[in-house]
Amino acid sequence: MADFLPYGRQSVDESDVAAVAAVLRGDWLTTGPAVDRFEADLAAWTGGVPAVAVTSGTAALHVAYAAAGVGPGDEVVCAPMTFVATAATAVLLGATVVFADVEPDTLTLDPAAAAAAVTGRTRVVSAVDYAGHPADYAALRGAAGDALLLADAAHSVGGAWRGQPVGSLADLTTFSFFPTKNLTTAEGGAVATAHPDLLARARRFRNHGLVRDPAEQRHPGEGGWHQEVHEFGLNYRLPDVLCALGSSQLGRLAAFKARRAEVFERYRDGLADVDGLRLPVRHPDADPVWHLYAVRVLDGRRRALFEHLRGAGIGVQVNYIPAYWHPVFEDLGYRRGLCPVAEAFYAEELSLPMFPDLTDADVDRVIGGVRDFFGV
């Protein structure tokens, strides 16, 4: 049998290895100059919006919600077609998550559904750029009213909507740099925001809440060692060694994006005539970075195709179980049926392999496996 083909995989070359090795040979492994450099390099992709590097995409969400002041009594409107962390991090801060359904074509948060879910208690509306396709943030901003708008851009770094880069479309944007994402720092993430107060709160929260500027301290004058905690935070600092990897990866993000687009088009061309599939679409205003190639398998055959491809050594996956289907939300009183569009999509969704190091032969192998299953 041919080697197993994963559905997602990092792309690491010798330039990445050299960048990491240079930090290991230096004086700073963490909280050093590579962090500042990575944040500046990332801001070049967000239209200049400053970024705060953190230890994971989940940490980025936690930091962003904390910066927004999310707490008990608040509501967070959230898309359900996402990894559970988008909602869980709000719950951990004491908020109530209100799930709103998604658009049937892009699977991003439906502005009308979001508007219907917003109340006077809504602190944040959280959209998710599913599969790398940006949500309609212009419409969502209107739907959010007085609430802050958050973009969970774990899938979409490097993308744009109506020519405006991801990272500048919402009040807060969170990124993930897990190995299967569009670039990697091994584990890692970031929060981007153009609001100085949110940026300051994010930076403070990722470093235990420490206040080191004497001008901001309640009891300055103790000495050069003095630091204070005014609000609790956590240690979410991304170390220099991983930030160096991130800067190196950002240097190749344009090439990653281009190759993902080529893979997307090759799948489309090779599967367009398969009646048992519905292929992903691109909104004309979107410039995606395709993190997933998510097909819909019709007529109840998703599981059979999953097992057929896995049996052929092709690593397919399902992304995602609607967040409120997890037992932890069930135990909080959430019930199935809340978001019928998301649930119908989940019943059919299958992610085919998508990463920049896929060869044309790899893509054709996947196409051949799908076509063999359908007998076409």
From TrEMBL:
GO terms for molecular function: transaminase activity. Keywords: Aminotransferase, Pyridoxal phosphate, Transferase. InterPro entries: DegT/StrS_aminotransferase, PyrdxlP-dep_Trfase, PyrdxlP-dep_Trfase_major, PyrdxlP-dep_Trfase_small. Its cofactor is pyridoxal 5'-phosphate. It comes from the Bacteria. Pfam families: DegT_DnrJ_EryC1 (PF01041). Belongs to the DegT/DnrJ/EryC1 family. This is DegT/DnrJ/EryC1/StrS family aminotransferase.
